[in-house]
Amino acid sequence: MGRQLRRDLFRMVVSDLVGNHPNLHPDRLDHYAGLVRRSTVEDPGWTAALLRWARHDVGLAYTAHAGAAEFVAARLAAGLHGMSRQVVDSVLAEPNDPTWLLNYWHYKHGRAVPKPVKRGIGDAVRRLYTEQSVIEDDLTFISLRFGDVLNLVHPKPVDERQSALFRSIIDRRYDRHAEECRPSLPPPAAPPPRISGHTLLLADLTAVERYGAEGIVETVLGRCERAEAVRFRRHGVAPERERALLKVVRTRYRRHDRVVVITESQQLDRSLSRSVPRNVPLHVWDLDDRDAEWASVSRYRYRHDGTKAGCQRALGLFEAGEQELWPW
């Protein structure tokens, strides 16, 4: 498979850590689906590993579910057999995951659900549907309930106890007196890894103070193996602010391993990009997220909403992807 395709798809997956929900942007979702389908045909093993990692290691549920659905669609369109059932099962980690994957399939591909999707979901519900998950996760306000999933995929129970559970789930689906349940809290996310090498961190104090982001700066510094922190202020109209940033970058950059700029309303334009050698990662964390719904990424150049919880994890992942050091 082409290295460029792998890097492009991996960047897009990682950008979901620092962007808005994918379903809010149909054009971007279509682009992602196209990359997954191409990658599935060219290297299904790598694509399957990426989707499993997205769900289990970084918690990108929608990204993984959409990717698995497109994986199946691509394999079917190409007349290829095998792997699809296993990939669907691999991205279903929580009791409501089968519901969300089916919702995506219906949204993108219609009401007819192919056998690999049904069988993969069937494998998953045998793992995920328990007495406890019915109490905590079979939510009455969700249109597609556990009972609907069972009626659609017809999984074979592992034993008589599970057979009785499946019957009770279906009965519960049609009982309008069932109690409303609250979703359980997700487990806490693992802390992001250390940021290796020597980092030049440029903090625009005007923006940091405006958005109360002092904690972001200190947290990033605490994660760095080595860091040089430069705090500066930008004033005036846009051209003056641009010149101030360029001056700081060009004055303080000394063969650092990366540059991280924490600021606001800053595009990753040609002047800023060229102020750092092209093979050195440049990260712009824009605290004003109005213009950063999605990470704007190209090779070694990244701009996104700097307030997102996944920023620090994404920093290392973006860089690893450029070197094809896949984290699975």
What does this structure look like?
- The protein is an alpha/beta fold and 328 residues long.
- The chain has two domains: 3-173; 195-322, Rossmann fold (3-Layer(aba) Sandwich).
- It is built from 15 helices and six strands.
- The chain has a six-stranded mixed beta sheet with strand order 2-1-3-4-6-5, sandwiched between helices.
- A hairpin with a 2-residue loop joins strand 5 (296-298) and strand 6.
- Helix 1 packs antiparallel against helix 15 (311-322), helix 2 packs across helix 3 (44-56) and helix 4 crosses helix 6.
- The longest helix is centred in the N-terminal third of the chain and has 17 residues, at 26-42.
- It starts with a helix and ends in a 6-residue tail after the last helix.
The portion of residues forming beta strands comes to: 5-15%
How would you state the average pLDDT, rounded?
92
Determine the N-to-C terminus distance. Answer: 18 Å
Number of DSSP strand runs = 6
Q: How many H/I helical runs? A: 15
Largest sheet descriptor: 6 strands, mixed
Would you identify the regions where 5 or more consecutive residues have pLDDT less than 50?
none
- Decide which structural class fits the backbone: alpha/beta
> What is the gyration radius calculated from CA atoms?
23 Å
| Overall tally of domains | 2
Structural shape: elongated
| Order of strands, widest sheet | 2-1-3-4-6-5
- Write the element-wise H/E pattern from the N-terminal end onward: HHHHHHHHHHEHHEHEHEEEH
Roughly how much helix do the residues carry, as a percent range?
A: 40-55%
